[in-house]
Write a structure and sequence with these properties.
The protein is mainly alpha-helical and 320 residues long. The chain has helices spanning 7-25, 33-48, 53-77, 82-96, 99-114, 118-124, 138-185, 197-221, 225-235, 244-255, 285-319, and strands at 259-265, 268-275. The longest helix has 48 residues, at 138-185.
Length: 320
């Protein structure tokens, strides 16, 4: 249709604006769209839950499909109005990314650890990750924070922007819906071992490209590109998560620290492989270094995604 705005221009302007809003205000304390989605998904789970993969697959399809469809409907409604399309993209980006809040929570824990207030750090740690804080001392909490910053840079920022570049607003909302469902039902508890199977597998698939992009950009933006790539290649496959492995290994190499090892989730102890074994133990100042690396990765992701859209548009024009 003549006069229809460039989708690449809409994506670039809207994404930059959404990231700027996130940088300035972060996540709202109340009324966050992702929290609203979580409540709706929990209500659907109450109606559909059976200890069966098929019912879990239906739950995933209903919840993620609805979020994606609403995004597609909203995008279609504003597609001929450039300002509205940019605003919709900006609001969607702000709603699904969480880089600023991630950094704030990490820094708050780092500040408590630096002050020697382990109880305050333990109190805040569940805001960032699912570790059992009572089982962790100061160095273990610092390591947990760095690992969480690495993994959530992929989940809460890069993965969403990647799918936004591929599929616009539906991609943004759909990815965040899948990632939220995995956090809600994808873990291996007695209630969700079968019911959450579909959400966990779909999250693995959706997160695959964003995790590799995060790992690559961490190598570029970190202080030791060779060490980052070396740790990624040597250790990523040993991690139990196909997506957290590359990201955490790359961050470990970029920061020159060791990640992985023994940890506890809800009273369950896990012995994970050490990532970047030649690195040193994590120290409290490494939390700030990890947050800054996450910020640089976010900026590079914006550049890569916009550049990818421009390149794709150029190739399409030349092949017509």
């Amino acid at each position: 249709m003549p006069g229809r705005p460039s989708t690449t221009g809409v994506f670039a302007c809207g994404t930059a604006a959404g990231l700027a809003v996130d940088l300035l205000v972060g996540d709202p304390r109340r009324g966050h769209p992702v929290a609203a989605f979580g409540r709706a998904a929990a209500a659907v789970e109450d109606r559909l839950h059976h200890d069966h993969r098929g019912w879990g697959t239906l739950h995933t399809a209903v919840c993620a499909g609805t979020a994606t469809a609403l995004g597609a409907l909203a995008a279609r409604t504003v597609r001929d109005r450039p300002s509205a399309a940019v605003a919709l993209t900006a609001v969607s980006v702000w709603a699904v990314v969480g880089g600023t809040t991630l950094g704030r929570e990490a820094r708050a824990i780092g500040g408590a650890l630096a002050a020697g207030d382990l109880e305050a750090a333990r109190e805040r740690l569940p805001h960032l990750c699912g570790r059992d804080p009572q089982s962790l001392d100061g160095p273990a909490m610092a390591r947990a924070v760095v690992e969480s910053v690495a993994e959530n840079t992929s989940d809460a920022v890069v993965g969403a922007l990647f799918w936004g570049a591929v599929a616009g607003v539906p991609g943004l909302l759909g990815f965040r819906a899948v990632n939220t469902l995995d956090a809600m039902v994808g873990h291996k508890s007695a209630r969700h071992r079968r019911f959450g199977w579909a959400s966990a597998r779909l999250d693995d698939l959706a997160g695959w490209p964003g995790a590799r992009l995060t790992a690559a950009l961490a190598a570029v933006a970190g202080g030791d590109p060779r060490g980052s790539v070396r740790a990624w290649r040597a250790d990523a496959a040993r991690h139990p998560s196909p997506n957290a492995g590359p990201v955490e290994a790359s961050f470990a190499g970029a920061l020159g620290v060791r990640l992985g090892g023994t940890l506890a989730y809800g009273g369950r102890v896990e012995h994970r492989p050490v990532l970047n074994a030649t690195g040193r133990a994590v120290e409290v100042p490494d939390i700030e270094r990890a947050v800054r690396l996450s910020r640089r990765v976010t900026a590079l992701t914006l550049a890569v995604c916009v550049g990818g859209r421009i390149l794709t548009d150029t190739v399409k024009r030349r092949t017509k």
